[in-house]
Input
Amino acid sequence: MRRIICLILAAAIWFPSLHACFDEDPDALREGLTRAQLCRWRGPLDSEALRRANPEWDLMARTFSVLAFANLALRDDADEYLAVIDTIIDDTLRLERAHGQRYFLLGYVDRAPFRDRAGRSLFVDGELALMVAARMAVKPDPARAAWLRERLDLIAAQIERGPALLAESYPDEVWLFCNTVALAALRLGDRALGTDHSDLIARWLISAKSRLVDRRTGLLVSETTYDGTVQDGPEGSTIWLVADMLQVIDPAFAADQYARAKHELAGGALGFAWASEWPASWQGPEDVDSGPTIPLLNANAGASGLAIVGAAAFDDAEFQAGLIASLGIGAFPVSNGDGELHFAAGNDLADAVILYALSHGPLWETL
Amino acid sequence: MIKRVVIIVVAFLVLAALGGRDAMGFLSGSQPAGEGVPLLGAGYFIAWFALVLVAPVLTIAAALSAAYGRISWLRSWIASRRR
Output
């Protein structure tokens, strides 16, 4: 009996204190991740590990890295970040030219033709355009302006042709993640090029709010068909990034989506925080993008990682601190002698996402 | 309880020295092609959470139990002195 009482008391002392061992300074994390990411992009690039799991992750790692370096360049006024941004963009465009958009897509893209006559993936177009538009926000580049204008025209035309004002990422497969990334690219591109897609963006918002919001949670759904039929409900590994992109499209709607996402998906205890992949009212599948889920807690790796982006975007310091503590205990940070940090349980994409979250702000403030 | 703590700590140190932390990529599906969950990574995962969750509780519990033992002895000694 004495032993049991002592164990209970010990647990009552230790567990509430545990998070203090993993409360990391976000600035120190950002510094370590920045060093590692700079080293990665300046050396011989090896994306094979990422591509084996999912070729989409290769493109996404590039996108989040560019967005992070754009934030850092605007914050620190450092040309070294601009040079790395150009390296990433040039290499990515080279790969697209050499291998086509399918280089960054999963194999099932060829199982059926795209419904839209252009046969393009908004996932690829949107992320490429966002990268270049972010670069232009750091420093205008006439050499890239023509490319950006052409790509944004393709994106706008593809969205306009969609019966639900939605564009495909895969044949008959529409992701709100990709559509909002593309809209953010249009906004940033408009500022850089002096173009104006505000009418299309306004109509997209009206359509999305009327047909793409889950009735039970008030959250945007994650996936539809080309004609807007909902396939999957609100998803953690989608909605946090969607809310972030919506900040430059419709700030009030973005704040609403973040608040609802937090209500439906955020969890926490004893100083640790996490996010679930699906709200209680919608149980969907887990795929490779979701990552593992801890049972009982319903804490999902992919959703929790992107929740850090949401917390940073909406200045939610308490939620961010809890998520960072969870990273410390469950993502296995590793630093080398040069101060380069990576999370051993993640991969280059996860590191890029976290760096984007920890550097968040300056790029969106240009709008 | 302390014996168990020592076992946990030693197991963790051995797995860490073998590079267990670097084998955690399986959690995100980033392990090398053709490999399933690595034994080293899985072992390190278990040892890590035993180290941060179980070992401190056992250590504190052992300290509390020892403190209780001392207090009991002291009370007995005081009572015997009064007689």
